[in-house]
Write a structure and sequence with these properties.
Blueprint: H1 4-21, E1 29-34, E2 40-44, E3 51-53, E4 59-65, E5 69-74, E6 78-84, E7 98-101
Antiparallel strand pairs: 1-2, 1-4, 3-7, 5-6, 5-7
Length: 104
Amino acid sequence: MRLCRPLVAVLGGLALALTTTGTALAADGTFIWVGPQGKAYALDNPPQHKCLDMAQEARAARNATKKALVVYAQKKCKGSATRLAPGQSAPSGARFASVVFDPR
């Protein structure tokens, strides 16, 4: 239950940001990943050029957006980076702590 609240806060904030900025600044499509206990999560039309830290364990990133993205091993988009082209997926065991969509 503790892990659910931070995730809801992050996703709520992202939803608010997306509704106020419009889709012109969004990477059209869906970003999908696996969280704690193997539960799948998705983020529709994520914001471009912004580093997003994951609130909890995250792995198996899948890029179903129309833009490239980069997942990072550490928060604040630091550490080893893995670039995923549209339609590409990271290995199922590949963990990440942050992501940026349509990196500059």
